[in-house]
Design a protein that fits this description.
Low-confidence stretches: none
Order of helices and strands: HEEEHEEEEE
Strand order of the largest sheet: 1-2-3-4-5-6-7-8
Strand content: over 45%
Number of strands: 8
């Protein structure tokens, strides 16, 4: 609910002429592959707002909404690595360059430079992916790699071989026109 409130406040800050596309059910997955163990998790409660006039995009998720196949991994992720009580949200704020005409159906390559804030550390990142326009619905798919060191996420030496230094992140957001 806090994500929805944040996104609505953000959306209301746009010009009255802006057409907004929104979701609260976006999906972010991550995968860590090592010779010792593979770790994956999914968050299906990701909030996204895209302003069709300016190309501004905001992606926000509660870190505790990531679900793991193993509850112990989930506990370690939240308590030891991401410290989700201290840093409860992940946030990307950017602007899609050369935003296509969102009234014309099709699939377009997009690039959105911006800032990724995870674990209290902001880093410049570019979201790259595909944007598919189908009527009042837009699907945005993107891939991203996140280096743990870039966000000061420390992994104890005891389990270092079990967690990749760079995590593969995949997003799929289905946005509806509002």
């Amino acid at each position: 609910m806090k994500t929805l409130s944040f996104l609505l406040a953000f959306a209301l800050s746009f010009s009255a002429h802006a057409q907004l596309f929104l979701t609260q059910t976006g999906e972010t997955r991550f995968f860590s592959k090592t010779p010792v163990e593979d770790i994956s998790a999914v968050n299906k409660k990701v909030g996204v707002v895209l302003n069709s006039q300016t190309g501004e995009i905001v992606v926000r998720m509660a870190i505790t909404d990531f679900n793991f196949p193993n509850k112990l991994m989930q506990e370690h992720f939240n308590e030891n690595y991401l410290e989700s009580e201290k840093y409860p949200y992940g946030l990307f704020r950017g602007k899609v360059q050369n935003l296509p005409d969102l009234t014309k159906p099709g699939t377009y390559d997009i690039s959105a430079p911006g800032s990724l804030d995870i674990h209290g550390v902001k880093q410049d990142r570019t979201m790259k992916g595909k944007l598919t326009v189908q009527g009042d619905k837009i699907t945005l798919q993107s891939d991203l790699q996140v280096a743990l060191v870039d966000h000061k996420i420390e992994v104890p030496k005891l389990v270092f071989a079990k967690i990749a230094e760079v995590i593969d992140v995949k997003n799929q957001f289905v946005l509806q026109k509002k």
